[in-house]
Each structure stands twice: as C-alpha cells, then as structure tokens.
Amino acid sequence: MYHKRSLNYFNQTTDTLSKIKCLNSLGVTYRKLNLEKEAFDYYFQALKLSEIVKDDRSIAIALNGIGNVFINTEEFDKALYYFRKALAIEVKNKNYKGQEYGQANIGEVFLSKKSYDSAYYYFDKSLVLAKKYPRREGVAIKYTLLGLLYQKKGDYQKSIDYYLQATPSLTKNNSIRYLSNALINIGINQLHLEHYQKAFENISEGLKSAKTINSKENIMLGYNALVDYYSLTKDYKKALNAQKMAGSFHDSIVNETSQKSIISTKIAYETAIKDKQIQKLAQEKEESQQEAKTNFFRLIILSIIGVLSILAFVIIFYLYRKNSDLELQHRNSELQQYILQINELKDQSKQSLVSTDQENFTEKFKSFDLSKREIEVLINIANGLSNDEIADKMYISKNTIKTHIKNIYMKLDVKNRIQAIKKVHAF
Length: 427
Description:
Helices cover 85% and strands 0% of the residues. By secondary structure, it is mostly helical.
C-alpha cells in the first residue's frame, strides 16, 4: 500500500531514480506474494525507465527481479538469460554485493536444472563474497542454498549441517520466509534419516511460520513434507488431507491466467526494442549466409579427412595382422627348436648315462652338495624322464619331486631342465 502511494507521488515529479526504486520495490513485494503478473509489470516498468536514464544499478535490480519471477514460474532458461545480463553489469561496475546476489541466482537456476556441479560453483563464489562483504542474513541465505543443493544430491546430514548454520542468523534478522524454508527442509532431511519425531517438529514449525506471511511456496513445501511424514508413519488419512492442501496451493502459485499475463507483459517490453532487432536481423542474415558457405567447405574438408582416416586405419590394421602372423610363426619356430633340443639331450643322456651308477655320479657332483635323493632325481632328469615318471619310479609324490628339482636347480645354479642336462654333460 505504501509503495503504491509513493509511486503516485513520484509520478507527479521528475525524480526518475526514486520512481525506478519504487517500481522495483513493488516488483519484489508482489513476487514474494507469488503474484507473478503484478511483479512482472512493475519490474518491466523499472527496466524500461532504467534503460532510458542509463542507470546500471537499477537495470541490474530489475533484471534480477525478472529472473526470480521466471524461477517462480519454472522457466529456468529464461531466468538464466536475465540473471547473466544482470551479473555482467555488476562485474563491469565492480559491484561485489551485486555479484554475490547474481551468482547465487545463477546457482539456483542450475540447481533447478539439476546441474549440481555448476550450482555449487556459483553458490561457493557467492558465499565467498558474502563473507568478505557481510550484509544481514547474506551468509545465512548462501548456507540455505548449499543445504538445498546437498539435499538434492542425497547427502541429507550435510544438508542439515548447512541449514543449521543458517538458522541463528535468520532468526536474529527475523527472516521468516527463509527461516520457515530452512526448518521445513531440515525436517525433510530428517525424514530421509528416519528421525521422524524431530522431522515432524521442524516441518510443523516451518509451516506455521510460512502461514504467518502467506508464503505459498513454503506452505506447499510444508504440506508435501507432511504427506511424506504421514505416509511413512502410516497415518494415511492425514497424508491424504495434507496432499489436498499441497495441491490447492500449487494451483494458486502457477496458473494459466498468471502465465498469460506474464507473456503479455514481456511482449509489451520487447516490442519497444523491436526496431533494433529488425536491423540486426539483416546483418545476421548476411553473416549466416557467409557462415553457411564456410561450413560447407569445412564439411568437404572433414569428409576428405574422414576418408583418409578410415584408409589409414585399414592399412594399420592390415600391417598389425601381418605382424601378428609373423610373430606367431617366429614363436612356433622357437618352440620347435626347443623341442628338438630337449629330444637331442634325451638321446644324449640315454647314450651316456643309462649305465652310470649313482656312486660315480655322486663323486662327480660332490662339490655341489647334492643329497642322495637329489642325485637320483638328477640321474632321472638326465635320462629324460618327466616329473610323473620320476615320481612313479622313486615311489614318492609329485610335489616332493618338484621340491628336489628346485633344490637341484639352486645348487647347480641353473634355471631349467635343459641347463641342468647340459651341466651334467659338461662333467
């Protein structure tokens, strides 16, 4: 009422900046009352006057206001467009408080779009500025935004921690709208953590505060939270009543009449700059045609590169397969040579060691400190017997044979059967 009376007085004066401030204030008031049509009307009036007098600060305020109303109507891409325009102005003018507010607004848009990493990036930048340039509940509001972010991500305890950091300042500054929202969200987190009694207390307290200021958004949030609470505690009658209340408030927040009014108000503003847009269209058409030609040549070049790439891939694949075949042949050749060496050594061992008695063999390898069993195993190896054959012949287990062979290799300083046989022949 007082803002409207002030506006009537300013309309009779030449104090344009005060009139703009009053229009923006009316936009804020109606937005908080969830009256989107009226909020848009006053914000666009403020924007038009601000652009006429070229007052950047007032332009940024109006742009942020319009963006916030688009968030209320869940038109997030439009909100992001206006918020970015506002932030660019604040950055140009080095207005840090304006940057804090703008970054928080952009973070809210990304949060609504479920782009959580981008949301955290802007919320964190906003929090840093809020701490560096403190203003009333500025830091607390950033904590509530971070609380909501972690709730969306499913980290309910961390979300509660951020909301609890916010509540003392919100209480101190009597920020009922933000405080009621924080309490309800704390309750929602506690429902997820199965702390039902605490959840009910916080939701009820937050809903009560929301009703005192007729914050339809928070009232709807509170009733939806009660639906979840009563469902979880199996009081389905109360859950149904809460659902009905939530539905009625949702219908009053976003409705067809409000949407049509918003669109018509936006058109009224955009018509004022239509002439400039038409001039740009001709230039953009010419640039578009030039870009189309450039893209055509790029497409041809990319096609040629693509064909050459495929051809190169085929050649590389062919060479790879050929190399693999050659490598396989080489390995087969090595294996055959290895088998021939083993067979030759077997033949040699049969000719030279078949009649050798263990006593003479022991004398030969006395310096290697081989045991009686190890000498016997070595003779069998030299005679070309396998582990299984040696085990059957000596009436001992295969594992014992493996142990003897391991000790023989170590004492003779060899690594395999072939080296062991060669060492036998060397003596």
